[in-house]
Amino acid sequence: MPEARSWQVREWLSHRLSRGRRELDRMRGRGQREWSHVRGRGLREWNRVRARIRREWRNTPREQQRTWQLVAVSAATGLVVAVVSVLVAGPWDGGQRTAERARATDDGAPGERHGGPGRPAPSAAPVLAALGTRPAPRSPDSGGDAVPPPTGAGLADTLEPLLKDPALGDERSVAVMDVTTGQQVFGAKAGTAAVPASTIKLATGAAALSALGPDHRIRTSVVAGAGKDDIVLVGGGDPTLTARAVKGDDHPAALRQLADDTARALKKRGAGPYRLGYDTSLYAGPKLHTIGPNENLSPVVPLMADEGRKDDSDHGPAPRAEDPAADAAGSFAAMLRDRGVEVKDEPRAGKAAKGARTVASVRSQPLSSLVERMLTTSDNDIAEALARQTALAAGEPASFEGGAKAVTQRLRKLELPLGGARIADGSGLDRADHVSAGLLAQVLVRAADHDHPELRSLLTGLPVAGFTGTLRTRYAQDAVGRGVVRAKTGTLTGVNSLAGSVVDADGRLLVFAYLTNGTTDANGAQRALDRMASALANCGCR
């Protein structure tokens, strides 16, 4: 037997029940004197109708009975829901919910208001609040947050199995924090310090931005020397100064532009020839990092062009000049000659007089841009320069030791957890560096805090999984975290780390820091850390 349609069921039921009711109503209309008789006859008739309906129901196939039951229950449920919704949303007045009308006007009076100051209409909380803004207020209609936070138990269910990956080293420090609340939602030895490798650049950047501000620029100058025909090229500590051609307005400080301005000023003075000196006295202490000569870092001096690279690269390992300052001064002398300025002999190292008159100068991009470049490409030269700039701002010697001390002091002023922390350099190349995952995660929380807009470039500079910087070749085309995870990487022999931000499946912004020491398979460890970051992107974790 074909299954009955819902409208057929409704018509059948309506017909059967209406027939019995009509019989009863007809008998009730005969008057009060015959009521007892009518009542008895009507009830008997009604019982006969009910019995007939029951017989027909029992004889109806089971499949058709299920259909009728579903229709009847659905109709009743719909009616109940509608009635309850109306009652809960009320009270009502003249077809308008009084709560809505009260919020739409200043004084709760009925009617329209087309102009004048008024209370803003209620709005839903945003799915993901913009970085640096206060959390959205609770919705007056829903009574709750639009995006629920993850729970520790939910995150533990997701991350703890991944932490058992044998590719991870014996030492592990893990922290996951909710940016909206600023609270840690998952931790595994989160306060235990470990070697962070390049993820320590987050701490270096935070210290420099806090000490100097995101708009600070590093100046490279030419000043008058001791003699009337002497000029001195003074290094200000800008490792991004370039001897290459530049285009557009937003570019690193250009040695060619400095040569243009210097040649123009000298030609106005006439005379010559000139003697060129160069001043690297801004920095103190050893020039070489403890790792010694290395393709990952030039000698740390305040005057260099293109980070002392001897090829045409602009990031990553490369052959480096033994004396970047002398090479930069030699390039500058050649540029002056190309512009018609006679320069005698080769440039010599020297020190400019205090308060010497400035002939010309160029400035770096804003500090925020330098921090972004440092994080995206894991630039060690910029990191060591920023540690020294932080030292100068604090009145400390611009050295490895002075930079480490100044960075630590700034982190303390930011009220970050420094238990067990030791800062030895700005780049993370020194294995003496020790910080906890909790510290790095807190740095990222501060960067998203509306009270610390100066730190924002710590987030905007993070590499994007599968697209930019040191994460460009990581995360497969179909990986969950591709394009969603943003994180600073860290790699030394036996050390792997990852620290950054991710939006989970519910739209909640989380920050994380994963540190592992004692790894024997660098690629396997990287994949394990990437899976952990992707897991955050793939779950609501509640």
Note the topology.
Elements: H1 6-28, H2 35-58, H3 62-89, E1 92-93, E2 96-97, H4 98-104, H5 152-163, E3 171-178, E4 183-188, E5 193-194, H6 201-212, E6 219-224, E7 230-234, H7 255-269, E8 274-279, H8 324-338, E9 343-349, E10 358-363, H9 367-377, H10 380-394, H11 400-413, E11 435-436, H12 437-448, H13 457-460, E12 486-492, E13 495-503, E14 509-517, H14 522-537
Parallel strand pairs: 7-8, 8-9
Antiparallel strand pairs: 1-2, 3-4, 3-14, 5-11, 6-7, 6-10, 12-13, 13-14
Helix pairs in contact: 1-2, 5-14, 6-9, 6-10, 6-11, 7-8, 9-10, 10-11
Residue share in helices? 25-40%
Name the overall outline.
elongated
Structural class label: alpha+beta
Which spans of ≥5 residues are poorly predicted at pLDDT below 50?
1-13, 70-77, 79-144
Radius of gyration: 37 Å
Share in β-strands: 5-15%
Indicate the mean pLDDT.
Answer: 82
Report the span from N to C terminus.
48 Å
Number of helices: 14
Number of strands: 14
With strands numbered from the N-terminus, the spatial order across the biggest sheet is 4-3-14-13-12
Secondary-structure element order, as H and E?
Answer: HHHEEHHEEEHEEHEHEEHHHEHHEEEH
Can you summarize the main beta sheet? Answer: 5 strands, antiparallel
What does this structure look like?
- It is a single chain.
- This protein is α+β, with helices and mostly antiparallel strands.
- 38% of the residues lie in helices and 14% in strands.
- The radius of gyration is 37 Å and the shape is elongated.
